[in-house]
Amino acid sequence: MNEATNVVLELLPHFEGYVYPNEATPQPLWSVLIVLYPYITGLVAGAFIMASLVRVFNVRALEPVYRLSLLTAFAFLLCAPLPLLFHLGQPQRSFQVMITPHLTSPMAIFGFVYAWYLMAVLLLELWFDYRRDFVEWSRRAGGWKGLLYRVLTVGVDDVSEASVDLDRRMGHLLSVVGIPSAFLLHGYVGFIFGSVKANPWWGNVLMPIIFILSAIVSGIALCVFNYQVLMWVRRRTTDIRCLDVMGMFLFYALVVDAGVEALDWIHRVYSAEEGFQMMHQMANEKLFYTLNLGQALLGTLVPALLLGALQLLRRHIPELARRRIYFASAVLILVGVLAMRWNVVIGGQLFSKSLRGVMSYKMEFAGMEGWFMGAFLFMLPFIVLTVLIRLFLPENPPGGKTDLPEAAPPARLASQPGAP
Amino acid sequence: MKRPVTRRKLLGGVAAALAGAILAPAARAAKAAVRKVFVSSDAPKGYRPEDHQWAMAIDAGRCIGCGLCVEACKKENSVPEGPYFRTWIERYVITRPQPGSGESRGPAHVDSPNGGMRGFPEPPVPKEEIQHAFFVPKLCNLCRHSPCVQVCPVGATFDAPDGAVLIDPKYCIGCGFCIQACPYGCRFMSPVTHTAEKCTLCYHRITRGLRPACVEVCPTEARVFGDLKHAGPSDPIRQFYERNKVQTLKPHLGTEPRVFYAGIDKEVR
């Protein structure tokens, strides 16, 4: 299938104007996998920032989603390098990025930032947060789960008050360190694109900032989505106060993000530097749907209006409607940020660096850079997260408390069938 | 007393592992950087890159667009069939303005069918409408500040001391970052080796006293090649610099190309 598609595309490469001969390939060099890579990394950073709101900024209302946010960040972080790895022409040499990094390369430093974030921040923070539960669960649970929890205690089974207090303080410290680390993680991803001065669509000083802000927005949206889906699966109601606060942060993050992205575009339009005509053509033709409809209208404007309306009229809107509005906004934002990543990555390769012509991109169906692979890599973090939730956020934990809210009374559940 | 120590030991271990993970690669990187220039570069034993400074110049006014250079390059370097080129020729056809339009010139038509390897078809506009038409051979611009070298995550592509910008094919991980970073479209991902490829100035030839294949076959001497450290006043490359006012491609990007062009137009990018 893959080969057949390629043959067709090779027979009918679609270019308008002049493109450099080396650019006249049927597929862009970086395609759907590299779209997913910044998307997933951004979700990690955003979900972690979300968790930090509880730890560092003491936003108590968000406690019900604290662990879920951390596990979300962890699941997505585990999957974040996979698209990058699968995309490499020589994946077996990828370890050289870590062994002999070229220090002027944004991509090389990303390897270390990633390793730092995974090993020194997220894993440790999770461990300090869970250690007491691990000890308790390892005593109560039997079988392989008990063994797993025991292994995860790493032999540190002291649950005295002083010890648990130390855990708490270490967790707090790691959260404080984690915020700039999350910024660094995703800022670097933005810098990978922003540092390419050869490409006027990418080479932009605001790119890391835009990436960080959109990451925060998408991460919070993902937590809203995950929380509501998890509660729906467990037939419990969501904590509306928690959702309201998440919605509030989501709204303000979205406004700041949209503001900076608008500033970027205003600057591009006003300065109208070399390549602006090409960008204009891209926005009006090649990327019309994903940029104007996907990213700007559905991904930004509509959720901003919905969430903004809730900030003003929250008291007059019933809880069920609010839940649904939050859910819809989260989904729209997640789609919008995916569209943004698409517009950056694919958009930057749909025009020639000769600035004289444009290329077309039709995604393959099968193959390494096709729909199947893209869908699989997009679903993978959710599958990992499901496993993590079953293990570490169980509905009926083998002892210790879970931080999910108590089940609602049956009557209330019945009045809200299927409410996410 | 014992248990808090366990935790401290654990944290200490984690910290030590982290420090090791950070320091070990840095030491190896330093070692690799020293050796890198001499690794997998096609140069014969005993070749001293410090003793040379290779340079290429293009006299666009002489190019007749025959495409021999492109073909020679493909054969000499086993460049794969298809849209993969270490060098290519562009044709610029700048039209006369419409009478009464008030413009100084009409639109420019640029093409490079199959890299110009088989020459060019008839111009896309009638001859009487053409104001200027010329060919521009393109190749790696041998930038002094190469963005491709800057972004390579493993240092597989590097500036050789003799002016060539090379790729170690045994080291390249095939991420494609250098291809994105090259403003001139001079690099491609080889469908055979799945690593980045580019013009090496025929490094295997020049380090043995030969000229690059494209220079060798050019019937009009549009491509001028020489060693600036050994070129006398009558050497073609010195003569080129003496006789021509030159320009480089996309100078605003600050890459400082060392390939100089004579006889090109503002339309050339």
Structural key phrases:
heterodimer; A: 420 residues; mainly alpha; two-stranded antiparallel ribbon; globular; disordered N terminus; disordered C terminus; B: 269 residues; alpha+beta; Alpha-Beta Plaits; 2 domains; three-stranded mixed beta sheet; three-stranded antiparallel beta sheet; 10 strands
Task: Describe this protein's structure.
The complex is a heterodimer of chains A (420) and B (269). Chain A is mainly alpha-helical and 420 residues long. Chain A has one domain (14-398). Chain A has helices at 2-11, 32-55, 66-79, 81-87, 96-99, 106-140, 143-152, 161-194, 207-233, 240-271, 276-286, 288-313, 319-345, 371-392, 410-415, and strands at 15-18, 356-359. In chain A, strands 1-2 form a two-stranded antiparallel sheet. The model of chain A is unreliable at 1-12 and 405-420 (pLDDT under 50). Chain B is an alpha+beta fold. Chain B has 2 domains: 1-36; 40-84 and 137-269, Alpha-Beta Plaits. In chain B, strands 9-1-10 form a 3-stranded mixed β-sheet, covered by helices on one side. Chain B has a 3-stranded antiparallel β-sheet with strand order 3-2-4, with no helix packed on it. The N and C termini of chain B lie far apart (72 Å).
Please summarize what this structure is.
Helices cover 69% and strands 2% of the residues of chain A. In chain A, helix 8 crosses helix 9.
